[in-house]
Structure to design on (190 residues):
């Protein structure tokens, strides 16, 4: 007989408007006897949201800005990037059990990165320009991955710094029409 082991997984939705949280728990009975399933989500710059009816055990639960009390129904917007803390709890036999995870959401930044990548002319005749563009995109990629790694290791200040650096670099890359990225170092690293 399995024991109670609460676990949640945040799945990528590849959509700036949604967040998917899956109940990956094992329960001692089938079907599980679950009392008061509750999810709390700390949304960057918006605070803590407690959803007592907003989490279905053993399912994939998808949340948007209305669910997370950022907007009203019909006015949904992109969810903010940043560090989210998600806590799932149940109360079997009047004892609280919970699991808590912290994740770094980067969907909006990833969308910017994708736009910069799509602007890259892979058929560029000037190999030096193409090599510089690829180098710039790889630098941004490493800043993004560094931000995620820092957040996963509770280094929230470092995660914010790396995220901001990647964001600034992407703003420059996405707004540059010149095809010459030689000023990248001066603009992004000073």
């Amino acid at each position: 007989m399995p024991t109670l082991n609460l676990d949640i997984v945040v799945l990528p939705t590849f959509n700036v408007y949604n967040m998917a949280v899956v109940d990956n728990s094992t329960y001692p009975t089938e079907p599980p006897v679950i009392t008061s399933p509750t999810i709390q989500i700390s949304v960057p710059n918006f605070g803590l949201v407690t959803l007592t009816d907003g989490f279905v055990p053993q399912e994939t639960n998808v949340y948007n800005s209305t669910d997370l009390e950022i907007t009203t129904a019909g006015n949904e917007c992109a969810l903010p990037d940043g560090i989210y803390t998600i806590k799932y709890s149940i109360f079997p036999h009047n004892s609280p059990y919970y699991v808590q995870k912290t994740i770094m959401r980067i969907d909006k930044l990833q969308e910017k990165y994708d736009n910069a990548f799509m602007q890259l002319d892979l058929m560029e005749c000037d190999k030096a320009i193409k090599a510089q563009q690829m180098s710039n995109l790889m630098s941004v990629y490493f800043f993004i991955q560094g931000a995620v790694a820092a957040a996963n290791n509770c280094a929230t200040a470092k995660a914010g710094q790396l995220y901001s650096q990647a964001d600034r670099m992407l703003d420059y890359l996405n707004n540059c029409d010149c095809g010459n990225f030689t000023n990248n170092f001066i603009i992004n690293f000073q």
Remarks:
- The first strand starts at residue 8 and ends at 11.
- Residues 107-188 form one domain.
